[in-house]
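Narrative of activities, Objective 1.

The group set out to show that a structural description can be obtained from nothing but a protein's sequence at a throughput compatible with the screening campaign. Below is one input-output pair from the validation batch, recorded exactly as produced.
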Amino acid sequence: YDSNVKSDSAERRQHLIVIGSLIALVSVCFVVMLLRQQDEQEPLKRRNQEDQALSLNRIPVDVAPSTDEGNSRAQLEKQAAQRVAELTTKVREIKKSGVIMETDQHALEMTGLLQQATRQLIRLRYGDFGDRNYRIRLDLEFQPSMPDFEEYGKDASLLLELAPISLIPCSVFNFLEIARTWREGAFHRNAGHVLQARARSDITLPMPFQEYSAEYPHKLGTMGYAG
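Output recorded for this entry:
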């Protein structure tokens, strides 16, 4: 009996040794395979990093419009200006014919086309600011004869917010052009209900038609064209 027990114990120890050896062998094989796989992936990883670096180098540092884009925008502005000039000439001819511009169907269609083309030109020339109105700052210089000259001095400024181009784009564009080509100007008449000023610029022709919107009426604090 005792010899049989010893024999069983020796056999179990032998089995455990075999199992342990197999586990160790499998572990070694797994580690070797893992290291080999990492070695195989390392060149691919380096290539991916190099490709990523090349891709980053291709991203332009300067996000400003390219020369081609600038030329394209200038060409679009030139085409828009030509379109406005052509429509302005046609509207002036219609007005010269003596029709009532506010009721004549053809006149209304042509002034509508002119307004649409003018909105496009404004955005191309002066920037597209969405629903925000354009503003112009006038730097003023007053003469010593002003009653409050000693108190406020000769320098001042006046900030003008123009009407929405959705309402009266031709009027807004005309004033923007006056400001862009400004030479000189002065206040010359205080008529009580209006303060009139004259402007000298490259704009010498009157408005092609009397543009008006009931949503922007002539009232205190607004600005308009005389005549």
